[in-house]
Specification:
The protein is mainly beta. 4% of the residues lie in helices and 63% in strands.
Amino acid sequence: MNMIRHTKPCLQLRTLSNTVLVHEDCPESYLHVTVDLKLHRPLKVRSIYLTLKGVFTRKRLGGLWEEKSTKHTSYHHILERQGTEYYLGPGDYSYECVVKIPNQSEQTAVTHLGKVDYQLYGVVETMKFHSNLTNSVPVYIRRVLPACEEFRIADGLWRDMLRYQVMLNGVDYSLKDSLNVAFRLESLVGALFSWKLTATLNESVAYFKRSQNGRSELKKCNRIISKVVRYKSGEAPIQLAILNLPIVAKRVAPTYDCHGKYVSVSHHIKAKIEMADDKRYKFISVLPVRLIHPDIQQWLEKYDSTNLPRYSSLLISSRATSLALPTNKCHTLA
């Protein structure tokens, strides 16, 4: 006796890529989806549609994920509702769809206290109560940040006695890149004192909620991702040192940069120079950097190979704490 198997209808979603890159200079992006419906028996349906659902969640004190906000970002109707139902006979149905992703969509983010993620749902609304066909696939929305400078330099002059520079080998980094922080110390009055160099990769994560005035900050977390220290005593008037700063340290994984309505993540390098003779002097330079997702890096590499780079000025701040504040100058090289 032959048994009839797989008599239930089957709904599947296929995407060319489940990653969508959103650009600031484009009003919307697109997600290409194929909806496959397999029917072994006739089926009456009210409608068939796609919906993109974004969810922002954050952790409570107990470590449990608590849903805070849900938003249907986009709808795409394949068979719209009408006065009568649609009759679909047995067979295979395939629908090619293009789902619009608005430019203002929140980007995908996962941090240690909150996350923003998306699911694309396919729905076949049937005539039967509680018998709709559904399926979903994850979607990742990445925002392409504006291109910026290739190198960063912060320098300062202290009491006409010491000129110092801090240089980075780039601005945008992925987790596999090497981040080199170069120091140049030049004494204008002879040999240098004993000195200590410290470079840290710092991460700042802010969580927000909607309010009557737009949004308000819920919580802000700062942490050090990695740190390198070097000590030295030198007699030469000019000293050079390069500190290799790991982007992924033991037990600490950074989060990619993002700037959204619910979660904002940024990174910066804090470079500290400490000099000592009879007294101690400390100079601190703060240089912003960006950790970008591999999908963004791949797009930037393709973009740079076919277009001239675009540059936008970003603030580099230097400050010093000592008996007398040095005169600081910040330069950006393109």
